[in-house]
Design goal:
Layout lengths: L2 H20 L6 H25 L13 E2 L25 E2 L3 H11 L4 E8 L9 E7 L4 E10 L5 H7 L9 E8 L5 E8 L9 E8 L4 E8 L18 H8 L2 H8 L22 H8 L8 E5 L5 E5 L4 E9 L6 H4 L5 E2 L5 E7 L10 E7 L5 E7 L17 H8 L9
Length: about 425
């Protein structure tokens, strides 16, 4: 059956059922109208996609997903063939949010161009968020574009991480701007690279939006037809920063997120605060800097992570420190053969490695300490300005003994 005829037949049956139900109860007319407009928009997008590419040319992904709508028609039975399934009293009816709808929505929002490979996931998997991914060509070469929809707890660490610009020392990038929009939403516009070490020069540009109610929309694009393992096909990703902003703030994405079911495993707020709170970046660095050896200048400090970049006149050197609670249960994993135990029970270990980014010539020294109550202080130094850069010197600017002295300093007792 043609797509349009089937949907019009469904709409007719649904309209009659709602008309009958309307004679038997009062409802929120504004919510009903809003939901009707949202469904009408989705149906138009579906028809447009079917006409443009043919129903067989659009992947039916996620047809078993569910989209909650803000009304219930439990007062009267719906026709047995309706897409709106009968539910127990008080339970909202559901409509599917399919991969096909997400593909059609993204295609409709993009500037004029050619759309190639498409894939998407609707709401059929309650543990994975809906997403849509396609290849778009505006005449200057194909580029991959993806959109992911999700919920985050407003004000949570996850919400902040989504819209905070990363430190360049940890995530090299060309540009990142985080702003608050007039409606209170937070928006991050990022221009960087798929591979931080630039071993392949694939560019990754993204826009992340978190609304005051926790709706999370993320858009990413690349200057290649795939995120990884695809040749660079254009100098920059297809959409400009302004176009990324327009796409991520489109109201239709927020409406889709509104109806995503709440995570049943979401922890409930606890009235009891955690026993220990990890100290903030500024506090840790304020304690660290006076402990550094003389003659070493701090030329850069972390904003979101506890690190400094040092310069002793012989080349820059990266130093990071972590202060953690409750680490006693992993003591055996952290401290093996070669570690020592001090008279007060504190465990001390030393490790030498090439860092964690596989940079040729990198040398990283780490001193790890664990107090008897599970309080851990671990400090590492590298012979380069960042974990991604080539070494600037043979060894780190802080010696092994100096690292040990920093990690065991009584100044850290204030955080226990």
């Amino acid at each position: 059956m043609p797509v349009e005829h089937d949907e019009e037949h469904f709409e007719g049956r649904l309209g009659r059922a709602l008309h009958d139900a309307g004679d038997r109860f009062d409802t929120d007319r504004a919510a009903l109208a809003a939901a009707g407009r949202a469904r009408g928009r989705r149906l138009r997008l579906r028809r447009r996609a079917a006409v443009a590419g043919g129903a067989a040319g659009i992947a039916l992904v996620g047809a078993g997903g569910a989209l909650l709508v803000p009304w219930s028609v439990t007062s009267a039975p719906l026709p047995s063939g309706s897409s709106v399934a009968e539910q127990p009293s008080g339970t909202p009816h559901v409509l599917p949010l399919t991969g096909r709808e997400l593909i059609a929505t993204l295609t409709d929002l993009l500037p004029e161009g050619k759309v190639g490979e498409q894939r998407a996931r609707g709401t059929e998997n309650s543990t994975l968020p809906p997403y849509v991914h396609l290849v778009y060509d505006d005449g200057k070469g194909p580029g991959a574009i993806g959109v992911t929809l999700n919920r985050v707890e407003p004000g949570s660490d996850r919400a902040r991480d989504a819209v905070d610009c990363p430190d360049k020392a940890l995530v090299p990038h060309d540009s990142c701007v985080s702003t608050r929009l007039p409606d209170g939403s937070l928006l991050k516009l990022f221009q960087g690279y798929e591979y931080p070490d630039r071993r392949v020069d694939t560019k990754l540009w993204s826009a992340d939006l978190v609304t005051p109610t926790g709706q999370y929309v993320s858009v990413s694009e690349w200057n290649a037809a795939a995120e990884k393992d695809a040749p660079i096909s254009r100098s920059e990703p297809p959409l400009s920063t302004a176009q990324l902003k327009e796409l991520v703030t489109a109201q239709v994405w927020r409406k889709y997120v509104e109806f995503l079911p709440e995570d049943p495993k979401k922890p409930k707020p606890s009235a009891t605060p955690p026993a220990a709170v990890e100290p903030g970046v500024d506090s840790v660095l304020a304690t660290l800097v006076p402990l550094l050896p003389k003659g070493v200048e701090v030329v850069e400090k972390g904003r979101d992570y506890t690190y400094v970049v040092l310069d002793d006149g012989k080349g820059r050197s990266y130093l990071q420190i972590d202060v953690q609670h409750g680490m006693g249960d992993v003591a055996d994993e952290l401290f093996g053969d070669g570690s020592e135990t001090l008279p007060d029970g504190t465990k001390v270990g030393f490790r030498e490695s090439g860092g964690d980014k596989d940079v040729a010539g990198a040398v990283m020294w780490t001193v790890d300490t664990l107090r008897t109550d599970g309080f851990r202080v671990v400090v590492s130094a590298l012979n380069a300005a960042t974990q991604h850069d080539a070494p600037t010197r043979e060894t780190p600017a802080v010696s092994k003994e100096q690292l040990r002295k920093i990690a065991l300093s009584p100044e850290w007792e204030r955080y226990r």
